[in-house]
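Final report, Chapter 2: Outcomes

The project's central promise was a pipeline that accepts a single protein chain and returns its three-dimensional structure in a standardized token representation, suitable for archiving and comparison. That pipeline is now operational. To close this chapter, we reproduce one record exactly as it appears in the project archive, with the input sequence first and the structure output second.
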Amino acid sequence: MAFYSALIFDLDGTLIDSAPDIAKALNVGFAQNGWPSLEPAYVEKFLGNGPRRLITDILEDLNIVFDEATAQRALDSYQNAYLNDPAGRTKIFPYVREDLEALKSAGIRLGICTNKTHVITGKVLEQLGLSSLFDAALGADVVPACKPDPGHLLAVANAMELTTGNWAYVGDTDIDKKAAEAAGVPFFVVPWGGGPEVEISSERRLSRLADLLHV
């Protein structure tokens, strides 16, 4: 029997490889501003802090001068483009769908805490056929402060009506790790996405999500 009665997951880089769709949407605004086209592998390095930080971090890395108004226009273009095609190129990581189904079948309740916007999160989950697996999924724009602020993670727990501390968070970045630590809950890291770069003890490093049935 699994030790945890509930599990909350990050989304991008943890359950899905969404970098191709994110890069495609970003490139709409970048093209409008005469900025260079971005490859998914490059964009992936900046994921985790939400869309505004994604854009400003990339612009700073490329040494592109910008002001708040320019960044906002790029953000608006990105959000509109992403909403129009949220998961056309996005892939679920291998074994994730079947492992989530196995966890749910074992009676473990599932949730999502992501720095994606809430509307896009819902659209991505629906398009990928994952919506029915989760009791709650909260994006960054429906909470007072997003990850790594622990309030975001705890808001998902509250939405799931978790009354005990018998739950854990699963992600692929140091942002996810910090959120879990600040919330005082165990953290597990996946082996894909940014997972290999996260420093963590071996017993908290997963080979696949089904490992959570036996921890």
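Archive annotation: DSSP finds eight helices and seven strands in the chain.
This record, like all others produced under the grant, will remain available to the consortium after the project formally closes.
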